[in-house]
Amino acid sequence: MTTAATLVAAVVFIGASALTLATVPENLYGTVHARVELAVRRVASEAQAGTLPRELKTPARVQLLRVLSPTGEVLASSTSFPQDARVTAFRPARPETVETMELDLARHPEEPRSHHLLMAMTVRSPRGLVTVQGASSLADVDTALMWIHLMVYLGTPLVLVIVALLTWAVVSYALRPVERVRAELAEITGQDLSRRVPVPPTGDEIADLAETTNHTLDRLERSAETQRRFVADASHELRSPISALRAQLEVANSYPDETDWPATGARALAAADRLTGIIDELLMLAKLDAGAVTPRRVVDLCLVAEEQIRRREGGRAPIFLHACAAAPVLGSPVQLDRLLTNLLDNAARHTASRIDVEVTVRGDQVVVTVTDDGDGIAPEDRERVFERFTRLESSRAKDKSGSGLGLPLSREIAVAHGGTLTVADHAPGARFVAVLPLHRT
């Protein structure tokens, strides 16, 4: 930014300087030239008319005037015109024309010479050809040009240096909050995400950057905390079935003759199935968290519900599917099947006598409801059940085989498909409502 500002200032000042040097000297000399020429022509007119006085009056800023005969005799003169041979010899080559020259004159012999503009004009008078000479000092012009050259050749570089220093200072001051943000971010590590960058009270883009950075750190902290809790809970949930399986196998191995191997194998298989279910749910959650894109096609949720109920015939509680029509949804067949599987598994664990399933199309949405007639879920716990590894006390008392991942996974699947999963009011029991966008062909 300093370089850019300095280059822009250099272009402006160099252009202005070039324009000044090209026009101002010519204008200054032109002004003096016009002033002296006007005085010379006035005196020449008086000489032609024969009304020439012996002592000439000089107008403002014209210091010297005189009239010479062809022999060099001074016919009329201002009182201060010096008797200089060089001036006497200066005559125009053609009559009625004005010629100009620059020379150093002194109005008195004892004075130092100064720079003058001298003009001469030859005209015919009653006394014959006479030469009118006029001069004006160029000291003011020389002084003005000296200051102009000083400003151009010394002032311009000095101004550019000042512009560069001021730009550097202003930009450094403006970016100081950014440096504080950078320094604070450099100190923040993955082990401590509680620190935040300072927000300057300026209300500008840098303040917006600091606020956005803090919001990002908030999300990172929440994500890291969720990940730590997830790993801890996953380790706890996996440790229990593994420990139970290990204990069963160690006892069976220690007392092989007294072990009921078919029963032990069945228990080990059940523990392995539970581990497989937990791992599958963890893997699917990890894919959803990572935003992995799964192949999608049109899935009829009414057909999925019918297939689920068909697979669960003969279960502890009967499942009643209300009449449903085609309900197409664009999504992953595996994930949508898993969503309904988890909802039905949850309902089967808590229901008292029956489970009701309904799949309907309402406008641009497909609504799936799974209702049981169990103890229900208290209003204050209706969001907690969607937290990973969260199991209510009533759920632990009824079934110790759950992992606390089914409902969170179902909600993640619904959200990934642009829908929602909530707990609705219902008595007795609990009602889960999944809303997904309808796919129209």
UniProtKB/TrEMBL annotation:
Protein name: histidine kinase
SUPFAM superfamilies referenced in this protein's UniProt entry, alphabetically: ATPase domain of HSP90 chaperone/DNA topoisomerase II/histidine kinase (SSF55874), HAMP domain-like (SSF158472), Homodimeric domain of signal transducing histidine kinase (SSF47384)
Chief place of localization: membrane
Uppermost EC category: transferase
Localization: Cell membrane
Catalytic reactions of this protein: ATP + protein L-histidine = ADP + protein N-phospho-L-histidine
Keyword GTP-binding annotated: no
Lineage: Bacteria, Bacillati, Actinomycetota, Actinomycetes, Streptosporangiales
PROSITE patterns with a match to the protein in the record: HAMP, HIS_KIN
E.C. designation(s): 2.7.13.3
